[in-house]
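Sequence only, no structure available. Ideas?
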Amino acid sequence: MDQEKERAPRNQTIALNKDETTKHSKHLIRLYKNTPFQDIINKTINQDTFEAIKYLPDNFVDLLFIDPPYNLTKKFNTQAFKEMKSTEYEDYIDSWLSGILRTLKPTASIYICGDWKSSSAIYNVMSKYFIIRNRITWEREKGRGAINNWKNCIEDIWFGTVSNNYYFDVDSVKLKRKVVAPYKDKNGNPKDWINSEEGAFRITHPSNIWTDITIPYWSMAENTDHPTQKPEKLLAKIILASSKPGDLVFDPFLGSGTTSVVAKKLQRDYCGIEIDNYYACLAEKRIDLANADQTIQGYHDGVFWERNSLGAQKRTKTNNFRLIYKNSSLFKQITGSMR
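Reply:
I predicted one. Tokens follow.
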């Protein structure tokens, strides 16, 4: 990984120089037999997943998020994955998923990512161990076109649970959508939508088709050079829906750290495993940055916004600030007159 390559002035991609890599390496851990539970909370484990999972404690995970290598030949900095037959890929998934089972609480939820080539294999293995609840399909709005095939613009996330006793908070993941046809009732009032200074919007229940996700790119503050980085907004939906504040979110293929970063921003505990030292350090840098910046692009005011709605979000922030300031001024006037 070229740690110090030149970038355009407006490029916000998060990277590491040699000094930062040395600094963040000191915070990474490795697991050994009898590693205490408290030593892995809110930590990044720089180790091979197959080795590390042998030393994880039992029944400590509330939410398991897995974004494994898809069944494609791909390079991940110092690591490489080679495409294999579908049956072999199933065996590969089973080889690490079976080892993670004992780490899950009876109330745990599980999400595993895949593309169209790996999705069926993921389902086959997950259905052996979990109750499959749904398949989320989300739109990747960028990518290369194909001459002799349809352009691939979707990925899947399989959702399962250990048991029928699980947590799901639908109210925390509602979507704020612009109303195209603003119907009104017989009295002329908005019907199932809100008319505000930002425009006409409807708060809707989430479905299993997500078209509001933006893939991180160079002008986004969360972007890194990791080739398969998941958006913070995507993780925020999963973490808010399937965990409570204080729950522990575990990611055995952490990559550049999005799962841990979003868990921290949403007041959850986290633990992740990443074999590549540079990516593990990158995760630690992003976790540090989350101390100063808790924002998640596309999630504001307790709801998720559609793509390309940043202007409306900014207007909402401005109006909220004005309201707070106005109420604060009014409070000062009232309390002042009481003296």
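Helices lie at 18-25, 49-52, 86-100, 119-129, 232-242, 258-265, 277-289, 310-337.
Hope that gets you unstuck.
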